[in-house]
């Protein structure tokens, strides 16, 4: 048992040694941070959807006027050559 403790102490003094518990905790924190930054999380999707719907509603009058105007090809066909 003492030799095991001494080996652990020596390993801790080495720069390459990483505590498995600390490694697992840092990995868990990284996963949580990545999940929080996920843009496809349901909450983020709902926020973007609401914002896009509001923008579409604001642009609807302009979209309706554009529907009434003839397209570029139609304008070119109407002009006599």
Shape: rod-shaped
Radius of gyration: 31 Å
Helix content: over 70%
Total number of helices: 4
Q: Biggest sheet, open or closed, and with what strands and sense? A: none
Q: Which structural class do the helices and strands define?
A: mainly alpha
- Give the overall pLDDT as a whole number: 81
Number of strands: 0
Architecture overview:
This protein is an all-alpha fold and 81 residues long. It has a domain at 43-81. It has 4 helices and no strands.
SSE map:
Elements lengths: L1 H12 L6 H17 L5 H27 L3 H7 L3
Brief sketch in words of this structure:
With 81 residues, the protein is mostly helical.
Task: Give keywords.
single chain; 4 helices; mainly alpha; 78% helix; rod-shaped; 81 residues
């Amino acid at each position: 048992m003492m030799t095991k403790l001494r080996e652990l102490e020596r390993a801790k003094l080495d720069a390459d040694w990483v505590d498995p518990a600390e490694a697992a905790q840092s990995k868990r924190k990284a996963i949580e941070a990545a999940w929080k930054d996920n843009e496809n999380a349901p909450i983020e999707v709902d926020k973007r959807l609401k914002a896009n719907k509001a923008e579409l509603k604001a642009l609807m009058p302009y979209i309706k006027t554009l529907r009434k105007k003839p397209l570029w090809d139609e304008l070119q066909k109407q002009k006599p050559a």
